[in-house]
Design a protein that fits this description.
772 residues, alpha/beta, 8-stranded mixed sheet, 4-stranded antiparallel sheet, elongated
Amino acid sequence: MTQQDRLRSVPDIADAAPLKSAGYGGYGGQRPLAEEDAGDFDLRAILLKLWHGKWIIAICLMLGGLFGVLNSTQQPARFFATGKVMFDVPRANVDAGQDVVGDVIGPLRNQIEVLRSTALLERVVDDLNLTQNPAFNPALRPPPEPTWRDRIAVPPEIQDLLITMGLREPIAIGAPPPDPVAAEERLRRQIVETLRLAIRLRPIENSQVLEIGYESGNARLAAAIVNSVSEQYIVDQLEGRLDTFRSATAWLTERVEDLQERVETAEAAVLASQAQIALNAGVSLAAVQQQLAASTTARNLAQDGVSTLTAQYARLSGALESGASISALPEFRENEAIAALLEREIELRGNDNDLADTLRPSHPTRLRLAEDLEQVRAQIRFEAEQVVEAVRLQLDVAQEREAQLREEIRDLQARELQLSTEAVEVRNLEREAQASRILYENLLSRLQETNAQEDLQTADARILTPAEVPLSALPTAQNRSLTTGLVAGFALGIGIVFLLDRLNNTFRSPFQLEEMLGVPVLATVPRAGSNMKRADVVQRLREKPNSALAESVRNLRTSILLSNVDVAPKVVMFSSSVPREGKSTTSMLMALTSRQMGKSAVIVDCDLRMPALAKVLQVKDETPGLLSVLYETASIDEAIYVEESTGLHVLMTRPSERVAKINAADVLASAKFRHIIEVLASRYDRVILDTPPTLVVADARIVSELADAVVFCVRWDNTPRDAVKEGLRELLSVGAPVAGVAMTLVDEQRAATYSYDGYSYYKGRYRDYYEA
């Protein structure tokens, strides 16, 4: 974005957003850290701004103090009465028991709220009959002077006409009469609110003492209100405790009666339950529990027997079915019949073995032995089966016994459960009756203590120091009036200072120029002195080449040369927005400085309407000028004036050369003028063009096409911002190579108060560094 586009993007210079400048200015091309962010709060700038307007603030402060003094003499006398109340007074202790309602005094902050309560203040109003006091009832005061509203009345003729029309009372302008009851209630509330706001309550540090104060225009009334508040508070405390005790007594009485009835009911229930249990149960719970334990033991034994018999029966029957040897089982061997048969079997088998060696198996003897052996074996099996059957019968008997014991245990358990449930209910009834009895006895004791303490109650506070009638008035009103006047005057002075600063429509600092215009500030040129003519300024630069003015001009020259680091500007044009900006003087000083530094320079006066260089150099001879060269009545060498003391070359515009019908814009736009500038640029190191203001004529825009750099001059604290913006826009609209802005005629001492951290400030602060 070009400089012209940036300038056009700002709709109003007063509201323009800060723009960063990227060129080389009179500050080394960089801005101080304090200006890096325009939104930062700058305390030093504010303080210096206030210091700059110190006389305005001082005058407003004196006027405010004077007004405060005059107003304080009109303030009525005010009196302040105080009294002290001490809290937490020891109370009587009845029978060394605890109080029923405890400590109701609470922290002092709670008592402050009690003292401000509406109920207590209403009692003060009734005690002192404040509704009939003119200080609180405006209706009892003398009538005020009639206002313009009171003077508006209906003419008598109209009132008579209204009466004849049936209206018995004349119509008055205003609101209908208020309800007297509502008015009285409103007045009472207003008095209570006035007391609440006026009473001063202050706890005494590290104590249980509270100071009560009241300020009034009547000394006796102030003391009376303080004493009434203290007394009504004591009464309120005592009545509060008595009401609390009465409430506690009523509550305890009601509770004792309820508990007495509950105890009687609970004890009756216990007796009835015990009687019912004794009637229903034929045996006690302990006996049932013993029977249950015995039956359980017998059942366990029976279960063991059944298990044993079941295993024995399974083993014996399994042995018979599998055909195992009967003699291998002890149950069979221990049977006498089976044992005898086993011996007979052994005997027969032995006989048969003996005959087996001599007789054949078919021998009758052996056949008879085999038949006997088979019979014996059959008898053994029969006996074994009888043993198994006996075991089975024992098993059936054991199982039946176990079932009987199990049924008996279930009956005993049910009976035990029933008896236990009934016993639990009895115990619950007994505990409830016991708890009700204990609570009844405790509350009955507390009721007796409360009745005894009620007659011994005292208030939780007492008046330590009653209020006395103040002997002297307070200086508070006068001091407050004086302080208010001083504060108001000081605030007014600050407001005027900031208002004047906001209303200022000029530029007071180079940073302000950069932020609002978006172009760099090349240098600040200080004012040489008060009431000095331009010729005197030029003479001062000649005489004092090391002065602050000379250093500023050299700084401007350096900034212009560095505005284009690739090709140094050769043709430099100076212009401004309006006349009397110091443009011609600055361009002359620029040319002189270049000459002093050994560079050839020529300055061309391009203002064909109001030429100024001849007056600056005080040239009185009739040397031909710029118009003579344009009209070809003189050559360039003949028209150039060489100043004797400095050797400066000047191509002036002579007032005698001007023609009334000449069009300056056409002349400056001609090819001849362009040729003159080209010739001068080829001969001199620096060609300086002094042009008219941009807002007055179009000459500067035309000449800017011939310049390598344009310096726009702005007068410090003088040129309106809109004029500067518009003048700069005129140049940028034609593509002028604006190198930057030069702030001219800077009052360095005043600038130090506006731009405290800028280049101009330090130049003003260290003026003794330069030649005076």
